Amino acid sequence: MSQMLCNIVHEKGRMVVRADALSLPFREVADAVLSIAVLHHMATLERRQKMISEILRVLKPGGRACITVWSMDQSNSQYAKMRDNKDSVAEEVKTQSCERLKVHDGKEFVQQDLLVPWRIEESDKTFMRYYHVFAEGEMEELLRSVGGCSIESIEKEQGNYIAVIKKN
Asked: Which residues form the Methyltransferase type domain (predicted)?
């Protein structure tokens, strides 16, 4: 969460904590954890497993977590429809890419690990953000590899996988 979003939440009288997803500053007492569009920024399997483990650590037994990630298949998603009307920015940032990490051209994902150009409206700068987009079945496999939870559901909606898990 950006500092600006944290400030907005704080101004509305709510408590907010900005923290490292791999080392959450909480005890094991949470009823629920929401992780929206964070896990797919973890660059290795080990970091993705560590993040899931950390979510499970802060949950009390029986606590639930909802975790969302981008799906490799974006067909029929709002993201795909939005990108249909935009020019590709891949060419202008290609020099920032490396051999292994391709720059997403704004159409369909051609590999799971890639850089996605993000342009801030008020700026002419383009920032490259790392994404690991999830293949079908990969989220379930990841959760099972970590263990310590039951999978209540994994749904695909608007180009995202949404997993709901319960701590054992």
From this structure: 16-67
